[in-house]
Design a protein that fits this description.
Blueprint lengths: L1 H15 L22 H6 L5 H9 L4 H5 L5 E6 L1 H11 L12 H12 L2 E2 L13 E3 L5 E7 L2 E5 L6 E10 L2 E6 L6 H11 L3 H6 L5 H9 L4 H5 L5 E6 L1 H11 L12 H12 L2 E2 L13 E3 L5 E5 L5 E3 L6 E10 L2 E6 L6 H7 L3 H6 L5 H9 L4 H5 L5 E6 L1 H11 L12 H12 L2 E2 L13 E3 L5 E5 L5 E3 L6 E10 L2 E6 L6 H7 L2
Parallel strand pairs: 1-7, 8-14, 15-21
Antiparallel strand pairs: 1-2, 3-4, 4-5, 5-6, 6-7, 8-9, 10-11, 11-12, 12-13, 13-14, 15-16, 17-18, 18-19, 19-20, 20-21
Length: 504
């Protein structure tokens, strides 16, 4: 037995030293040799076929058992270098055969290996030009003459050289080759792997890393969607564009990770889908004034004056700074601004209370809403819509002066009766509809939430008449909130009910 094993190893080593061996040669190296090793055992005993053995095991498809069976089989056995070349072609995600660890990858590896196996014993002398053999995978392998030797043709454009022939096993024969043969299924897999869909293209572009972060943070399957068949057009904002958006959103948004509530993630998804069009449009397909519906639902408008620009719902458009970046499922145009639809602008607006909190000259109004202790903050943070005539700090200071020494600050409205009085004053500044300055007319009477009316005067400006002899002037109109509009006025309005309570 030891003598037979030794003879087999010597023959095998001799065959590996040959780069190509003629299939019709009568040399001793091509003669059949009796052996008790089956094909798997033969490969296990040869170090240059260790990757083949590893592949058979990794495929986890019973191939070791199959090729240890009765046969007869013919195996075209790729060398270790051939498997290394395959891994290199597959890219950085495939550093070893162990990386074929998903079910689909194991199935692919199985198909590749079966493509090297014939269900009959075919000796080198049986190989002739144009002879097409069907592998166990069901696909065909073509025998092609190359000078005085033969090579094998697969579904790729690169043939495999036969570097050793007629290595006998107990259940068949092995021929050595210098390339892993690839069936069409493997070619399709490699093509897909090496192609860049839109998320992969973004991931491979340093200046789009924040776009990738945003797609992930939105948590709305956007990466999966944009990895799909498409086709899509994506207007892709740069990192600087996202940084500018975060700056505009204020201190609460220092990074995209601050979009962490469900509402904020939904908002981020709306922003991102406003950059996606459900068809492929190259820059040459765009036209001046063209309106394009986005996946979010609203349109963007194309402008071609001085470049390629896209207009959103803001006053500032975005410029395409890098066009026609092709992906396997569409096209990407890199833009220098995050596009915002009207839906998002409305959602990003502060509510009435937040608007007042953001204006330094309305701090006493905010203090009064809190001091009244009548849920006014909650009410004016609600859906609305409201119109609020918002008195300045100077207006509240003047009211306190008029009320005398007992009222040095709004904190002096501390009894239940005084808080009710303050509530009546504040609700007299609130209207339960949204009215822009353009909606106001001279002499118009508007009912307030307090119950009494204010009167509009448009002589020399916009003025609000209350129950006193001095009217209030609108000094800053149309401050928009998500739940209404505020007009800043220079006087605290007083209804007759309050004047009566104050003894005026």
């Amino acid at each position: 037995m030891k003598k037979v094993l030794l003879q087999s190893k010597i023959l095998f080593a001799a065959l590996l030293l040959s780069l190509t061996i003629s299939c019709s040669s009568d040399d001793d190296t091509n003669m059949e040799q009796e052996t008790s090793l089956n094909i798997v055992e033969l490969a296990q005993n040869e170090s240059t076929l260790s990757n083949l053995v590893a592949a058979l095991q990794q495929a986890d498809a019973g191939l070791v058992e199959t090729l240890s069976g009765n046969g007869p089989f013919t195996v075209f056995a790729p060398s270790n270098d051939a498997f290394s070349d395959l891994l290199d072609a597959l890219g950085e995600n495939y550093n070893s055969l162990a990386d074929f660890d998903e079910e689909a990858e194991k199935n692919l590896l199985r198909d590749i290996l079966l493509y090297h196996v014939l269900s009959s014993q075919v000796m080198a002398a049986d190989l002739t030009q144009g002879n097409v053999s069907t592998a166990l995978s069901g696909s065909s392998i073509e025998v092609i003459a190359s000078g005085s030797t033969f090579v094998l043709g697969d579904a790729s454009s690169v043939n495999a050289n036969i570097t050793g022939t007629d290595i006998m096993a107990s259940n068949g024969v092995v021929h050595l080759i210098d390339k892993v043969l690839l069936p069409q299924s493997a070619i399709d897999f490699v093509t897909e792997l090496n192609s860049q869909n839109i998320p992969k293209l973004a991931m491979a572009t340093d200046d789009l890393s924040l776009l990738v972060d945003a797609l992930v943070q939105a948590d709305a399957d956007l990466v999966a969607t944009l990895s799909g068949d498409g086709p899509f057009t994506v207007f892709a904002p740069t990192n600087a564009a996202f940084a500018a958006l975060l700056d505009d959103l204020g201190d609460e948004y220092n990074s995209l990770a601050d979009f962490d509530t469900e509402d904020e993630k939904t908002l981020l998804a709306k922003i991102l889908t406003y950059h996606v069009v459900g068809s492929a449009a190259l820059s040459t397909d765009l036209s001046e004034g063209q309106e394009i519906e986005t996946v979010q639902g609203e349109n963007i408008v194309v402008s071609l004056v001085g470049g390629v620009f896209t207009d959103d719902a803001t006053d500032e458009n975005a410029q395409v700074i890098l066009a026609d970046q092709m992906a396997s499922n569409g096209v990407v145009h890199v833009v220098d601004k995050v596009l915002l639809p009207q839906e998002v602008l409305d959602a990003l607006k502060p509510n009435m209370v937040e608007l007042a909190q953001a204006v330094d000259d309305l701090s006493l109004l905010v203090e009064a809403l809190v001091q009244a202790d009548a849920d006014l903050v909650a009410t004016l943070s609600g859906d609305g819509p409201f119109t609020v005539f918002a008195p300045t700090n100077a207006a509240f200071a003047a009211l306190l002066d008029d009320l005398g020494d007992e009222y040095n600050s709004l904190g002096d409205f501390d009894t239940e009766a005084e808080k009710e009085l303050l509530t009546k004053i504040l609700t007299y500044h609130v209207v339960a509809t949204s009215a822009l300055s353009a909606d106001l007319s001279d002499g118009q009477e508007i009912e307030t939430v307090q119950g009494e009316n204010v009167i509009i005067s448009l002589h020399g400006g916009v003025f609000i008449d209350d129950a006193t002899n001095a009217n209030a002037e609108v000094i800053l109109a149309d401050q928009m909130a998500k739940n209404g509009v505020a007009h800043i006025v220079d006087k605290v309005l007083l209804p007759q009910e309050v004047l009566d309570l104050l003894g005026h």
